[in-house]
Amino acid sequence: MPTRRQVVVDLVTGLGAGLGSALAVPALAQHAGHDPVYSHLNDPKITTAPADTMRMQQVFDSPAPKAAAQGRWVTRAPLPLPRSEMAWASVLDGKMHMIGGYGKQRVDRPYHQVYDPVADKWIDAPQLPRGANHVGVAVVAGKLYAIGGFVEQNRKPDALCFVLDGDTWRAIAPLPKAAGAIACTALGGQLHAIGGAVGDTFDTKKSVDWHLVYDPRIDQWGTRAPLPTGRDHTGTLTVGGHIHVIGGRVDSFHTNSNLHHAYDSNSDKWKPRAPLPTARSGHGAVLYRDRIFVMGGEGTNRVFGQNEAYDPATDRWESYAPMPTPRHGLGAVAIGDFIHVAGGGPVMGGAFQSAIHEAFTLG
């Protein structure tokens, strides 16, 4: 019986144990530039993804108590090309939308790719009017929005915002202040954009506590009670009329947070909730079977595979089967009885991207 670590090694090296025919590739040492699974951002001459670094950085064990039913992960169709630093993904009409990010040695891609879970197939969709990474995405009243982002590598934020109108992206009112890695979610027919980071250089980059609200009916931004602690690269979603902001980083992944706050729009107040068991940033967060599942993320010399779930009814966390391939800066959504996790960086930082697509189910 192979160990969990050996299964991960098989997934990474393409030896066939976990990837299956859809991702069957030669050994990584034989790859040149862009292979079906991994791509190097800074140097197209690099021929080997850092398998040893991946193994050293991967973390799977959670301090949270284990759930009785651990669930399982299955392989799905890989992305058309390796991508990372999309920051989030969204669901529209039963399909997964992934926007912007890093890819093909650039950080300002206008990518828009859509996954159809019924056909297990990715298709290209209308690209953003301008490329960016760490773009905030949300669906409000049946329309897909793309908010802000960085136009350089995790820095130099942009204020431009767009809505997908049919087959065309249309500009809407820009952010009052430019930000990237700003988390977006819908509540009460409005788009809430929370936290994020500002700064044109790595030395000046810092997290913010902004809480901005966009009203599509009047194409205007307003403000609400700020996040208690400024963070970016958070996991943020709406559950039962409350917005949950979970984890994230304070200025850097060297100072990740396990903070978990919930926002009540009726009182315009934030309240603390049970903290995230594994502090991290760049993770996915989705609502699945009435629980908030948080998976992936990064930290100092760490890429997390932990899959931890929060029960809003009991204010408690449990751990589930971890991701076979730990990643950060990924896209994660729940469709039907599966959580789909696609793309992301397999090592700390933005140097490498993956096309891997794995799905979790309790079924």
Give an overview in words.
The chain has 363 residues and is mainly beta. It has one domain: Neuraminidase (6 Propeller). Helix content is 5%, strand content 40%. The protein contains two helices and 35 strands. It has helices spanning 4-13, 51-57; strands at residues 38-40, 58-59, 72-75, 89-92, 95-99, 112-116, 121-124, 136-140, 143-147, 150-152, 155-157, 161-165, 168-172, 183-187, 190-194, 197-198, 206-207, 211-215, 220-223, 235-239, 242-246, 249-250, 252-256, 260-264, 269-272, 284-288, 291-295, 298-299, 302-304, 307-311, 316-320, 331-335, 338-342, 352-354, 357-361. Strand 4 and strand 5 form a beta hairpin. The radius of gyration is 19 Å and the shape is globular.
List the domain count as a whole number: 1
What would CATH call the homologous superfamily?
Answer: Kelch-type beta propeller
Structural class based on helices, strands and sheet pairing: mainly beta
CATH uppermost class: Mainly Beta
Number of strand segments = 35
Integer average pLDDT: 89
Question: Can you list the strand order of the major beta sheet?
Answer: 3-35-33-32
* Rg (C-alpha, Å): 19 Å
| Share of residues in strands | 35-45%
Give the CA-CA distance, first to last residue. 23 Å
Low-confidence stretches: 1-36, 44-48
Q: Can you tell me the overall shape?
A: globular
- In the CATH hierarchy, the third-tier topology is known as Neuraminidase
Helix fraction by DSSP (H/I, runs of at least 4): under 10%
Instruction: State the major sheet.
Output: 4 strands, antiparallel
Total of helices? 2
**CATH architecture group name:** 6 Propeller
